[in-house]
Structures are given as structure tokens and as C-alpha cells.
Amino acid sequence: MRAFGKGFLIGTVCVCVLALVLLCVLRPKLTTHEADVLKTAYTQPGPGANSPGADSLPAEKEDAPALDFAALRADYPDICAWLTIPGTLVDYPVLQSSPESSEYYLRRNYKGEYRMAGSLFFQADCSPGSRCLIVYGHNMADGTMFGCLTKYLDAAYCGEHEQITLQTMDGVRQYTVAAVLETDISRVPFNRTMFENDAGFLDQAQSLLD
User: Could you read off the pLDDT of 4-50 as tens digits, one per residue?
Assistant: First the structure.
């Protein structure tokens, strides 16, 4: 009987360990894998991709995903953009649900299926056309999703990964990181998206640079 109890305990521990591995390791990786599959399915060859000299394209053009956004949004209308930070694991669709369910994608993938790592998603009151873009994502321990962003507090890392690419229906935008800070809404209203005029927007930008 004692041997049975010991065996049962060992078996229970093994099941718990396997469940922990599934939860903490495989689940986050699944979200990244799904994003890779999605990107491949909707990537279209760029102009002259097979022509001589195509390998001389600027690096930032090579990093930008040549996505068929019309087809992508026809199948998944909540995908509003694709965010890529070259040299990191950040290469994901950015979604947006209704204002009534603003955190719908907090624990869901682009198909609406449960995922612990969730998806990157826009704040409810902003869109790719907004002056200030607010994108939320989990800081995953394995580095997936926005797990790399804390590394930007290191100046050397920031300098090596300062370029950010955002693709939308309107085309590809290139951003350069100008400032990095750890904060919360009580200290800096970083999530503002509406401004009365240009001066208000510039004041907001300056508050993030100070």
C-alpha cells in the first residue's frame, strides 16, 4: 500500500511538471508559431523579388513583411496592423476589438482562441490613423510577445534595436526609438490618443522625453 502511495505521488508530480511545461513554455511559443504561419500564408513577393539585384534591397525593406493586407483583413478583420522589431521576437499582428470588449485579445489569438500569451492589441480609442498609437502586449518570461521590451532600458540594446516597422492597409511605416521609460498611468498619461491641437500633442511627446 505504501509503494502504491509513493508511485501515485510520483505520478502526480510528473503530471504537474508536464502541465507546468505546457503552460509556461509551450503555450507562449504556440502564439509565436501561429503568427509565423499567418505571416507566411499572407506574404506576397515584393517587386522584383526574383530579379537580379533584388538582394541589394535596403535592410529595412527586407525586414518589412510584404503582406497582402486586403486578404488578411478580409479573413481576420480585427487585425489592424503588423508590428515588427528586427532582431527580436516581436513580429506579430496587432488586433483591435470593440470598445465594449477592449481587452478581448488579452488572452486570445487572432482566431479568438484562448492563448496564455494573448495577442498584441491597440487601445480601444486608437487606430493606425491615430496620432499616438498605444499597443498592449504581455511581457512573457520566455521573451515572446513584448518580453524583450525591458531590455530597452539598456542603452546598448536599445541602440542595436532602435528600428520598428508597422505595416497597415496604408503601407509600411518606419519608426526610430527616441525614448524608453518605465512608468504607469498615475505618473505619465502615456495612453492619451486625443489632442486639441499640435501644441497638445507636442507637450505629450515632451513629457515622455523628459
Answer: 444 444 444 433 333 333 344 445 578 889 999 999 999 977 554 34
Which three cell numbers mark 103? 481587452
3-state secondary structure of 151: helix
How far lies 29's CA from each of 117, 149, 172, in Å?
9, 17, 26
Torsion sign, CA atoms 65, 70, 75, 81: positive
- Cell numbers for 169: 492597409
Residue 2 has pLDDT above 60, yes or no: no
Half-sphere exposure of 92 (CA within 13 A, CB side): 29
Stated as kind and residue range, the H or E segment containing 81 is strand 79-84
- Strands of the sheet containing 135-136, edge to edge, are 135-136, 120-122, 91-95, 79-84, 163-168, 171-176
pLDDT at residue 86 is higher than 90: yes
